[in-house]
Write the structure tokens for this entry.
Amino acid sequence: MTLRVVLADDEAPARRKLLRFLNDHADIEVTGEAVDGAQAVDLIAATDPDIVFLDIHMPGLDGLGVAEQIAQRETPPAIVFVTAFDEYAVRAFDIDALDYLLKPYDRDRFERALDRARRARQEPRSENGSVASALARARTGEQFARRILIPNDGRSFFLPVSDVVRLESSGNNVIVHAKRGTYAFRATLESLEARLDPAAFARIHRSHIVNIEEIAEIRPWFHGDYNVLLRDGTEIAWSRRYAAKRPDLFK
């Protein structure tokens, strides 16, 4: 029996890794790849896959939103979530009908997830209650990222968010200015902002997010704008548009 698989991840290297592992299985047919949530929904509707490898954080509609939509299908696919969150944030997914791959995962972990997805597809439940309840738990109990996966010189490592001083958008990349180094990788500031605790980080400009603990001084500037001085001496403009969204920081 051939199993149809869809890959949904906005990062091309992540999709290539999944594709490489899946190509070792003669009974797997990858029917398409999606780079965002909306494209994933359309692709799943068009190809009716048995299994979907679904990144949680994608532009626009996120992976949980995609799962909520496809859970309404008469025979929904088995879902394997792919995430850079640590294990505390994905416990809600660890049930019979769902699984997760925590980046960076190895081949053994991938094979276990695939086997579990096979079983879920071969023994479908009569209703989607377990999927729906897991999604509800994930929505209400979702934790903010404690660390960020940083690709660096062909390898990847986890950087604790407490070590992040600021994040800067630069074209198609995000530059992470950390206490012990600077790293650039392909991502959007919006995707990282969604994963960061607003009690610890503030978006102060369309191109900048700062660690609130690293702010040394906020200076009024012109027309409702501010200058932010960080502990490392960096100065960044805080536009009035973003300042208006964080009145709690001016009390």
